[in-house]
Design goal:
Radius of gyration: 64 Å
Protein name: NF-X1-type domain-containing protein
GO molecular function, one term: zinc ion binding
Keywords: Membrane, Metal-binding, Repeat, Transmembrane, Transmembrane helix, Zinc, Zinc-finger
Shape: elongated
InterPro entries: NFX1_fam, Znf_NFX1
Number of strands: 26
Family: Belongs to the NFX1 family.
Largest sheet: 2 strands, antiparallel
């Protein structure tokens, strides 16, 4: 809001300035301009643009009068020079004020963001810092409470305020902390405060002067006491104590750096200050503000009286008391103390009372045992041994002693002495007395005399107490003038008005008379500085029913509140129940009983089981509220209303419409409904059940198909015999299905011939597994010669069969065998060649051929080696070129062929024919 006001002022100031500088117009021109102004500017002002006066209605309303006052003739073609100058000045001033307002707004936003940064992130980080500072302390939570409070206040934003400049003490500021109240101040502020305090005291001391007292003595001005005080606790510090450097709390480090994970203005090291009271231990916390907590160390000490055994206790609580009675003698030396455990020097005086005689024994009275030696104040009056004179001492013990008149005596002035009996009187010596008079300055001028000397009659010049009058008077007289003192008394309000005041004005003797904070009584104390003492009168506070009263200090009635009254409340209950409770202030507590009225919401027979709702406090907001700005909030409307009964929640057994289950449902929703399960009734097909969700039906006891059930539309789902892939074409029916008559063909064992059969013959569920195997073996054999080959590679001699060919070891085909060097060859049976493949041995011709081959091979290797050595470099380069330029072998893509079922007769015929042709080609290839 301040920013918008600043912008508005930025607009108004240059306009006002331009208005003062603009010349006045003629009356006729002003009336013409006013008519145009009222025509063209009839638009209402926008409340949301109240602050942006540059383009708002406020700006229009302020600009128009200035335009009216400009002298602009209608006949002339160009504007006047004065109007141009005023507009230019207005634009310059407006731009200048806008820049100032934006700069102020940016500064405010920066300071607010800086404060948010100082508030420090998360509460979790502050708790971590607090925990690290207190981690070494082993005392209880109550012992460290004051120190922990200082730490928490320091970690919270805006909690530390410098009392001198009333500014926030930030984390990065240089501070000084008082050693008595531990309050933070800016270092520069406390230095300025201390220097100013010392300077003012020195100036005040220089203005003071000495004065004469009532005796005419000159009293010099008091010595200068130079010190400065803490602004909060007023602890006195010497000039040498003025802080010169920024130190951490434990004074170990100068200018401590600002660390986010340490206490602000702390060095992070252990405090190590001596604890108070000095027990010999040091503080174990990290460098911290505020007082050090009590000592957490444990010591073994006995109680104060020393009667109990020593026990382990915290050092801060080492002075402990037991519950035993002190048995020491009191100061009377007769009675025991009898008090609870305390130190021997702390025994109170004996309070036992007894009748004791005074010191002279003439009177007796009851006194405390500790005051057994008392004096009655009576003059002794006993005769001395001379029998002529009496003792003039006040009540005393023992003998009165010798007569003082029998001792060596002097004349009254003390100049002559003689020894005579006590019955003889010593007269005066006749010389001048010369004793000092009461003024202690002049001597007595009379002859030696008995008794006191008279008053001093010497004329001396004296000054009055205030020092305004001076004249010669008798020495024993006091000189006072009639001049009244005009100094203000210590109260700072009333003048002294004492005649001839010596400058030491007495305290004000007038009654304060101010109204006390209670607002009812006046202050009866003498006039004083600062706030008055609280009212000492008592006020009576009554409860609501006036049955209980309580006396409280006057003015504290509202804070203390009404007393607790145990009498029953007299306000009639707003609901239909009796709501007994104690007397109270404010509204009665809500009724906690059960409603127990018939539930008219559900219209059932169950009573309402909810909490009483006859008179419920309902808070609503005004729906028709239209805010003027974002700061406006809708007003809350509080009403006491009777709420309707809630829906009945009593569980009632309800069966679903399909009769599947019975469950407990709330009474308000106890209508039968579908349970969501399948109907489950057997359909007419005898195989399936109704798949619909739970639904209503006519005959509740029947388990057969109902007209509302869904009829079976599925085909036959009875599993076919193993191998049969033809579905049953009949609708859903009970088993068994009709035999499968579908024509089927399959290749024989060798794959050259197609065999046709009916499906139920080949895959019959009536035959056993062995019968089916024998039947399939016979029907799938075409009777021709098997086209398979033995492992040796020769064709099988058996007819078409399944599985491996029989007797592969009895192959009789002719094969050629060779010797080891493959020079000799011989034809034998296949079975013989397989049992002894190297039965043919080499002869002499084989050796000759072998030697010739080895010689040729040796010559060839030698020639090749010579060629390789000659052209080694060329061959190597050629080889590298060929190896580097060789293309990578391109792998063929594998095509996955899915096996499909042939449903077309043409496809079933084409596949066996293709297999037969392929087998013939393979056969002739093997023969070659």
């Amino acid at each position: 809001m301040f920013f918008w006001k600043l912008l508005r002022n930025a607009d108004e100031e240059p306009r006002q300035k331009a208005k003062r500088q603009t010349p006045k117009k003629k009356p006729a021109e002003m009336s013409t301009r006013n008519r145009h102004h009222h025509k063209g500017n009839a638009q209402p002002a926008n409340p949301w643009n109240r602050g942006n006066n540059a383009g708002s209605s406020d700006g229009q309303q302020q600009q128009q009068p200035k335009v009216k006052n400009v002298k602009t003739p209608a006949s002339s073609g160009g504007p006047s020079s004065s109007l141009k100058k005023s507009e230019e000045k207005f634009a310059q001033a407006h731009q200048k004020n806008l820049e100032a307002a934006k700069k102020y707004a940016a500064q405010q936003s920066y300071e607010s963001s800086e404060d948010e940064d100082e508030r420090g992130g998360s509460d979790g980080a502050a708790q971590d810092i607090l925990g690290s500072v207190l981690k070494n302390y082993g005392g209880g939570g109550g012992d460290i409470g004051k120190t922990q409070e200082y730490l928490q206040n320091l970690l919270e934003s805006r909690s530390a305020v410098c009392l001198i400049c009333i500014g926030t003490v930030k984390r990065a500021d240089s501070i000084w902390s008082c050693k008595s109240c531990y309050t933070f101040f800016h270092l520069l502020c406390i230095q300025r405060w201390a220097n100013d305090s010392i300077s003012q005291k020195r100036i005040s001391h220089e203005q003071q002067e000495g004065y004469y007292n009532s005796r005419g003595e000159y009293i010099p001005k008091p010595a200068l006491s130079v010190h400065w005080d803490c602004p909060k606790c007023r602890k006195e510090y010497e000039p040498v104590d003025i802080p010169r450097h920024y130190e951490c709390f434990c004074a170990k480090e100068l200018n401590p750096a600002n660390h986010l994970w340490l206490i602000p203005h702390s060095c992070g090291e252990t405090c190590r200050k001596r604890l108070v009271p000095d027990c010999g231990h040091n503080c174990v916390l990290l460098c911290h503000p505020g007082p050090c907590p009590p000592c957490p160390q444990t010591v073994v000490v006995s109680c104060k009286c020393g009667q109990s055994n020593a026990k382990t206790i915290r050092c801060s609580q080492r002075s402990w008391t037991c519950l035993k009675t002190c048995k020491l003698k009191r100061n009377c030396g007769i009675h025991e103390c009898g008090g609870v455990c305390h130190a021997a020097s702390e025994c109170p005086p004996c309070t036992s009372r007894s009748k004791q005689k005074c010191a002279c024994g003439s009177r007796t009275k009851e006194v405390n045992c500790s005051e057994s030696r008392w004096s009655c104040g009576k003059v002794c009056g006993k005769k001395y041994a001379c029998g002529l004179h009496s003792c003039e001492k006040v009540c005393h013990e023992g003998d009165c002693g010798e007569c003082p008149l029998g001792l060596p005596r002097t004349c009254p002035c003390g100049k002559t002495s003689s020894v005579a009996s006590c019955s003889e009187d010593i007269g005066t010596c006749g010389d001048t007395c010369q004793k000092y008079l009461e003024c202690e300055q002049h001597r007595c001028s009379e002859r030696c005399h008995v008794g006191k000397c008279g008053q001093c009659l010497e004329l001396v010049r004296k000054a009055c107490r205030c020092g305004s009058l001076s004249k010669e008077v008798a020495c024993h007289k006091v000189l006072n003038c009639d001049l009244k003192c005009k100094n203000v008394r210590s109260c700072g309000k009333h003048p002294c008005n004492r005649k001839c005041c010596d400058g030491q004005c007495p305290p004000c003797d007038k009654v304060c008379g101010k109204t006390l904070p209670c607002g009812k009584h006046k202050c009866n104390s003498l006039c004083h500085h600062g706030p008055c003492y609280p009212c000492n009168q008592k006020a009576t506070v009554k409860c609501r029913c006036t049955g209980t009263t309580q006396e409280v200090p006057c003015g504290r009635e509202k804070k203390i509140g009404a007393p607790k009254c145990r009498l029953p409340c007299r306000i009639h209950s707003k609901c239909h129940h009796t709501n007994p409770h104690h007397c109270h202030q404010g509204d009665c507590p809500p009724c906690q009983k059960v409603c127990d009225l018939p539930n008219d919401t559900t219209n059932c027979s169950h009573p309402c089981a909810a909490k009483c709702h006859d008179a419920v406090r309902v808070v609503t907001k005004d729906k028709n509220f239209k805010p003027v700005g974002p700061w406006d909030v809708p007003m809350e409307i509080v009403e006491i209303k009777q709420l309707p009964h809630p829906q009945c929640q009593v569980p009632v057994p309800v069966t679903c419409i399909g009769g599947h289950e019975t469950a407990q449902w709330p009474c308000y929703n106890s209508k039968p409904a579908s349970c969501g399960r399948e109907c489950g009734r057997a359909l007419k097909c005898g195989v399936h059940t109704c798949p619909l969700q739970c639904h209503a039906f006519k005959k509740r006891d029947s388990t057969e198909e109902d007209p509302r059930c869904q009829s079976c539309t599925a085909g036959c789902l009875i599993p076919r015999p193993a191998g049969c892939s033809h579905p049953c074409k009949r609708p859903c029916h009970p088993p068994p299905c009709n035999p499968c008559q579908a024509p089927t063909k399959v290749a024989c064992h060798c794959g050259l011939t197609q065999i046709f059969y009916k499906c139920h013959e080949f895959y019959s569920s009536d035959k056993t597994e062995q019968e089916l195997v024998a039947f399939r073996e016979g029907i799938l054999s075409c009777g021709q010669k098997c086209i398979k080959n033995f492992p040796c590679g020769h064709r099988c001699n058996s007819t078409c069969h399944s599985g491996d060919c029989p007797n592969p070891e009895a192959c009789t085909k002719k094969v050629k065998i060779t010797c080891e060097c493959r020079h000799r060859r011989l034809e034998v049976a296949c079975s013989t060649a397989r049992t002894n493949p190297r039965s043919l041995e080499c002869d002499e011709s084989c050796k000759t051929v072998k030697a010739a081959k080895e010689q040729v091979l040796t010559e060839r290797e030698r020639a090749q080696k010579e060629q390789e050595e000659a052209e080694n470099q060329r061959e190597l380069e050629e080889y590298e070129r060929k190896v580097g330029g060789r293309k990578k072998h391109r792998e063929r893509k594998r095509v996955q062929v899915e096996e499909t079922k042939e449903s077309n007769w043409m496809v079933m015929v084409a596949v066996p024919v293709g297999v037969l042709v392929l087998a013939v080609i393979v056969y002739f290839t093997l023969l070659r």
